[in-house]
Automatic annotation (TrEMBL):
Gene Ontology MF term list: ATP binding
Keyword NADP appears in the UniProt entry: no
Keyword field contains ATP-binding: yes
Start and end residues of each stretch annotated as Disordered: 245-289
Alphabetical keyword list: ATP-binding, Nucleotide-binding, Transport
Domain ABC transporter: 10-231
Native organism: Halobellus rarus
Signal peptide: none
Biased composition (Acidic residues): 262-289
PROSITE patterns recorded: ABC_TRANSPORTER_2
Xref: Pfam families: ABC_tran (PF00005)
Name used for this protein in its record: ABC transporter ATP-binding protein
Family designation: Belongs to the ABC transporter superfamily.
Amino acid sequence: MSEDAPATALRAQAIDQSFGDVDVLSGVSLSVARGEVAAIVGPNGSGKSTLLHILAGIAAPDGGSVAVPREAAGARSVGYLPQRPAFRDGFSARDTLGFYAQLLDGVDDEDVAATLDRVGLGGVADRSVGSLSGGMTRLLGLGQAVLGEPSVLILDEPGSGLDPAMVERLFGVVGDLAADGTAVVVASHELPAVETHADTVYVLDAGDFAASGSPAELLTETDTDSLSEAFLRIVRAQVGESTVRAGVGGRSSKKTAGADTAETDDTAETDADDGVETDADDSEVNGGE
């Protein structure tokens, strides 16, 4: 690594995860640098949420390891935004983040105000959560995830159900966070936004990454004009390869997620916290909220 290369903020190696007889993840590895936006895309049921839970330290893998360098005492290492964040309707946006701030060392009211401004909610800080639009509620969830300035931010489908303008606004905030040095891992079906804002795209299918690279590299490799087209070509090629393998080698004793298994979405409001170090034999998340 050169002196100018950004430091690695998160590293996952050979992640395996199964549920019963279903192999969801098989030997998945990735590394994300500070200031990098890494997008994970894939068909429904391909294991994206499962992988994010493992990266965030919410779940331990069957095999492999995840390492996030520990920050200074009191700092937060990982921030996590689930697919559907749930907050109390009667609380204001300010009160909501104030509640989460109490769970973090060294985070005060000034930090709450700064975070609301950072995600574009400073002007509605005293409005009740119940009066916020779906997009604003998602931005509030993003604010919860970035309280304490974590070095790694993990986002599960942050643009799901939002209109294109709000998706672009949200990804713009994500880009600003990365520009400040945050490593961002985002799972998303919003491929136009991913193409614009992601530095690296990982295509997850059949339990592993079928392809990875910058958006431009994936377009070149697939001879396509958009990330949406490239994604379809990669996934179709993967389906064809799996079919050939099944025909030559016979059926596996285990099923692979993505073909006929729906991935379970996480709907709980959960944060991963300090010093995530997870592996198959010794899993511990310190300071979880």
